[in-house]
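re: that chain from earlier
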Amino acid sequence: IISLLMIGKFSNAQSFYPDVTNYEIHLHNVNHTTKNITATTKVKFTVITNNTSQIDLSLEQFTIDSLLQNGQPLTYTYNDTLIRINLSTPMNIGDTSTIQISYHGIAHTEASGWGGFHVDANYAFNMGVGFETDPHNYGRSWYPCVETFTDKATYDFFITTNLGKQAFCNGLLNGIIANSNGTFTYNWIMNDPIPTYLASVAIGPYTTWQRNYQGLPIEIACTIADSAAVSASMIHLNDVLGYFINAYGNYAFDKVGYCLVPFNAGAMEHATSIHIGKVYFNGLLTYETLWAHELAHMWWGDKVTCETAADMWLNEGFASFNE
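^ sequence. v structure.
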């Protein structure tokens, strides 16, 4: 129903979106009391028309502290959803550059309470789709981006946490930096291009449940207390992976990943790092169709992505069939 309502509404004809090739997201601080986040994102892009003097990026309700190109401040307008940036000099097709945006504000969730950036006393995590937003891809709830389904980019994440909390993102962990103030910065690298709504971060009191399937790493972020229930609830994970690979071809990404989060309304298929409610891992097989549904999205939605919001039924239809 959501997709049908949005037919004809999702259009970027009036926008000046570039082709983004990489996002480098530095999440400097998450305040678990006030729910404020402070971040800097570097957006590496290529322009797709000659004489481009402006580009647009989407960002939902933050305060912009600085906006730079080659270390120099740029002028821009911002209506709490779209940033229109005036480039220092016009660019032509194939030209590349990087915009750096520093920003802060209260973490934003959409009206339904489902999508956006969720913060409580122990966890912080995003859900990349907003069911009451237009368009409903929702990377913009925590970083500036080209919010379309067709623009895919690689990602470098630098997520800073306090002692006792770990950060998990798409891709593979490249290293952990111990900072002089007692915090830790987790560097994750996502080498496979994905659309903005599939980028993810989860911060919490995590340990790592690790397995592998024929050399493919499997990594589940959960608490020590939840690890036994995870093992029991996912006894068929290798079987399901085998079925999907046999039917649809090789797994497309560097790892199979899940993050357990305090969320009681389902799960979200962020590529290699599915966010799924802790409640669904009870040591039984009650909800195995849910985690299997999200895993199916790695082929249907994440590897092959719908072109418009009106096509989202394809992502969900294939994943529901695969349950």
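The mean pLDDT is 94.
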